[in-house]
Amino acid sequence: MATEAAHDAAAGAAGHAAAPATGMPQLDFSTWGNQIFWLLVTLGVIYFVLSRVALPRIGAVLAERSGTITNDLAAAEELKLKAVAAEKAYNEALAKARSEAQAIIAETRAAINAQLAEATAKADAEISAKAAESEARIAEIRAGALQSVAEMARDTTDALVSALGGRADGAGVEAAVAARMKG
Amino acid sequence: MAAEAESGIQIHPMDQFIVRPFFGGTEVHWYTITNVTVWMALAICCVVALMVLGTRRRAIVPSRTQSVAELAYGFVYKMVEDVTGHDGVKYFPYIMTLFMFILFSNFLGLIPKSFTTTSHMAVTVVLAMAVFITVTAIGFMKHGKHFLELFWVSSAPLALRPVLAVIEVISYLVRPVSHSIRLVGNVMAGHAVIKVFAGFAAVALISPLSVVAITAMYAMEVLVAFIQAYVFTILTCVYLRDALHPHH
Predict the structure, then answer these.
(1) CB spacing of B120 vs A25 below 8 angstroms
(2) How far apart are CA B77 and CA B91, in angstroms?
(3) Is B93 close to A61, i.e. CB distance below 8 A?
(4) What is the ipTM of this complex?
(5) How far apart are CA A183 and CA B108, in angstroms?
(6) How many domains, chain B?
(7) What's CA B84's distance to the chain center, in Å?
(8) Per 3-state DSSP, what percentage of chain B is helix, strand, and coil (rounded to 5)?
(9) Taking the mean position of all CA atoms in its chain, how far away is CA A133?
(10) Which chain B residues have a beta carbon less than 8 Å from that of A1?
(11) Residues A109-145 pLDDT 10s
(12) pTM of the entire structure?
């Protein structure tokens, strides 16, 4: 604390708001005691508030936040692994389903092909049977036609011979016709 | 000051630093509630508002105020940890107290018509002496006589060591002076300069220039308010590191 004399001088200078400062108020040691006292009080209060309330609280919040972030990152990592596993399972199922589908398709195709081949073979057999039958008939008809021609030729020869006044010799006509037919 | 009265310019740059009783009267006793008391109380209110009320929700996703409080916490904590090392962390609350007090005093002092508590040597000298005494005590308590090795530069040639020791001791003893004068000088000078420019604003011809100059000075003072709080704090950390690890 300052001396009384200095104190009075300062009080006179600082007393009214209008009074200008004489020299530097910083060097007016009469106010030092006051300032130092209130400074120590202030620092004490701030220190108390900070060390008892604010700093532990903020430290806890920061620690909690970093813990939360770490946990969240771990959880995210876990979920990512799960997602990868799920994707793998999905892909496997997809591949399995696809191969099954392929198998079914191949099976069906084979069955259809077999049916088709069977039907084709049956149809071929029918067709060839019909063709053979037709050929037989054609041969028959042809044979029938040749015979008819021979008969006609014999009859005609008979008629011609009779008309020409001859007597038809059955065996001779037959032989002649046969000879001509061959020729 | 006599010349001012004639020209009509009223320049009293130091008036803003006068300590006067807040509720009238002329006597400034040690217990008197003065403008110093009021502005220090406001600094406490600001610290409480930011660091306690701002963080009362303890949110994982912080509000704006809580982010600022966390920023201040992280800023000083990292400074202490980086400069002093791991064993300096237990002094973090003390350093945080210094930082918050100086920071808010400086910024409250930027309010027009306010009183800047850190512009007074009584304040900064006490702060610096507190740091000096505490740090020296910690040094001797931790290392005993070995703390004096701080002044004995073992990496220098033997012949030079006594000379260096004298220089080191002097520079160590000058620390509280530079530590306190740096803060008070920066804050006081800036405020006084603003007041001088403001005085010139009374003359119409130069008042635009004066206003521009005040604005520029004010911007610089905002910077200085933070930087000086930072400088005071980091120097405290440096001194603390010397006490904790006196070996070069």
Answers:
(1) yes
(2) 10
(3) no
(4) 0.90
(5) 147
(6) 1
(7) 20
(8) 75, 0, 25
(9) 59
(10) 30
(11) 999 999 999 999 999 999 999 999 999 999 999 888 8
(12) 0.72
